[in-house]
Amino acid sequence: MPSFNLGAPINTALLLYILYAVQRILFPPASAKAKSIPTEFKHGYSWMPKAHPPTVLFTTYTPKTLAPFNGKDGGRILLAIDGTVFDVTAGRNFYGPNGMYGNFAGRDASRGMAKQSFDEEMLTPIDQPLDKCDDLTPEEIENMKGWYDHFANKYIICGKLVENDAI
Ligand code: HEM
């Protein structure tokens, strides 16, 4: 039976190479670290992002805490439909300050979605209790649910909307 002989030059060479390869993986030289995200293998062997990718935390909002997310500062844009908060930042063209539906940004858009109107009077003032929408017709509720499904398919659900004094 052949035995492993460390004294044989080929084994010594292989062992040295393995030790070298392992230390390259454990302690990669600065030159092996890609400065940008590699798109091909040769751009870097051990690439790590500088920071963890941004995460979205499911958050409980009130009308008052939701209001600042109106995109006017160039930041995130959130809106609520039927108690669910959507991150619609990707739809800045629609909901940004110059967007056709900019009124909904940072607000509870339920009534506007139900009644197919982006008029100011569709919005409940942020210091008032939540709009119960209990005067809406079944068709209007259906319309709102249709929009809800559209948003759920397109945007990220990032929280729920509760009364101002609930948290
Ligand atoms: C003058 C009448 C209107 C025109 C010409 C219009 C036009 C449009 C267009 C072109 C889109 C983009 C569709 C797409 O690319 O997916 C859109 C989306 C939308 N519209 Fe209208 N719209 C009108 C009225 C309204 C009204 C009254 C509402 C009130 C609720 C409304 C709410 C929306 C919403 C919520 C979206 C989806 C945006 C998104 O996907 O984030 N639209 N509209």
In short:
InterPro entries: Cyt_B5-like_heme/steroid-bd, Cyt_B5-like_heme/steroid_sf, MAPR/NEUFC/NENF-like. By secondary structure, the protein is an alpha+beta fold.
What does this structure look like?
One of its GO terms (molecular function) is metal ion binding. Residues 61-162 form the Cytochrome b5 heme-binding domain. Keywords: Endoplasmic reticulum, Heme, Iron, Metal-binding, Signal. There is one protein chain. With 167 residues, the protein is an alpha+beta fold. It has two domains: 9-43; 59-166, Cytochrome b5-like heme/steroid binding domain (Flavocytochrome B2, Chain A, domain 1, Roll), CATH 3.10.120. It is 29% helix and 10% strand. The chain has helices at residues 9-26, 63-66, 92-95, 110-115, 138-154; strands spanning 59-61, 78-81, 84-87, 156-161. A four-stranded mixed β-sheet has the order 1-4-3-2. The protein binds protoporphyrin IX containing FE. Protoporphyrin IX containing FE (HEM) is lined by residues 88, 91, 94, 101, 112-113, 116-118, 147, 154.
